[in-house]
Design brief:
single chain; 317 residues; Rossmann fold; 2 domains; 7-stranded mixed β-sheet; 5-stranded parallel β-sheet; 12 strands
Length: 317
């Protein structure tokens, strides 16, 4: 491991200028399959800027499955391949990179970049990190408010949270803000995918009438399974990414997934062409969409208030 660290630290920033005839290696570490549509956005951005697989680009893909605990081991494997750039999906991969890849440029997505402690500010990240911060803490509360608005009379909502990512202080603030609405929140902490189903079932047994699924790489990688679980239990659930509604989720509120990763691809191009990550501000999404699946609502026996349907950016019927 020490030897790998020495290799990582040997990278000179001046070496990152694009060079004719050079083959670039980009490494990916995320708990999501390479077949996921967001990666096509990144590859398209790289290709349109002259970085194409089979020509001058090698992609080293290392998925984490649903096991963030493997991040440090996988990161060591990636560094041994001397990548020019590493993409990190989520906190576990980012912290592994911070320990082992101190001089390799990192482009990453985080639910709350500042909460990771890896950068001093979004505008001036410094060091070797840049990427996208997803506004997750601010949006988590808004999603719960929308869920309550969609389900008049509801009095207990369960919040499914990844223990590695969610900040208890942020969740406490959400709970405090909901007190005037007379709605109780129960926090469902999980660390591994196998905990998701029994945790949701236990919450329903304890009286939960709906679920808010918070943002995290683990919960994203398991989202289709979660959609199936809540459908089987007849529990309405709200998610982070509007695209999930097209896959059967009841509702979602947040930024669109694919534009986020299109921008990640553009940031990667900047780095490969010679810009230091320290000089690329970490960005946040500026557009958020409400999506509602009326078909799923009917199956659940729900009638969504007309004013909410009118405000929705996407309604699937």
């Amino acid at each position: 491991m020490a030897g790998l660290g020495a290799v990582a630290c040997a990278y000179p920033w001046s070496a990152w200028a694009q060079q004719p005839g050079r083959v670039y290696r980009v490494a990916f570490i995320a708990p999501i399959a390479r077949s996921a549509p967001q990666w096509a956005e990144i590859v398209e951005e790289l290709s349109s800027s002259g970085f194409a697989e089979g020509k001058n680009l090698i992609v080293d893909w290392r998925g984490l499955g649903t096991s963030p605990d493997r991040a440090e081991t996988v990161m060591a494997e990636l560094i041994s391949g001397t990548p020019d750039l590493i993409y990190c999906g989520g906190d576990a991969a980012m912290h592994a990179a911070a320990k082992q890849a101190k001089s390799i440029p990192i482009v990453a997505t985080a639910d709350d970049y500042l909460a990771t402690g890896l950068v001093p500010s979004l505008a001036r990240p410094g060091g070797n990190f840049t990427g996208m911060s997803l506004f997750a803490p601010e949006l988590n509360g808004k999603r719960i408010e929308l869920l309550i608005e969609m389900l008049p009379g509801i009095d207990q909502v369960a919040v499914l949270a990844d223990q590695r990512v969610a900040d208890p202080k942020n969740l406490e603030a959400i709970m405090s803000g909901l007190k005037p609405k007379a709605v109780r929140l129960s926090l469902l902490w999980i660390k591994h995918e196998h905990e998701i189903e029994p945790t949701i079932k236990a919450a329903q047994t304890a009286g939960a009438q709906a679920i808010s699924v918070l943002s995290s790489p683990l919960l994203h990688s398991a989202h289709l399974r979660i959609i199936g679980i809540v459908a089987g239990l007849h529990l309405p659930a709200v998610f982070q990414w509007p695209e999930y509604v097209g896959e059967g989720a009841f509702a979602a509120y947040g930024p669109r997934l694919l534009p986020i990763f299109r921008r990640i691809g553009q940031q990667m191009v900047q780095v490969l062409k010679g810009t230091k990550p320290a000089d690329i501000p970490i960005e946040q999404p500026t557009k958020f969409e409400l999506a509602i699946n009326i078909r799923t609502a009917r199956v659940l026996g729900l009638t969504v208030p007309e004013d909410l349907l009118a405000r929705a950016d996407e309604v699937i019927e």
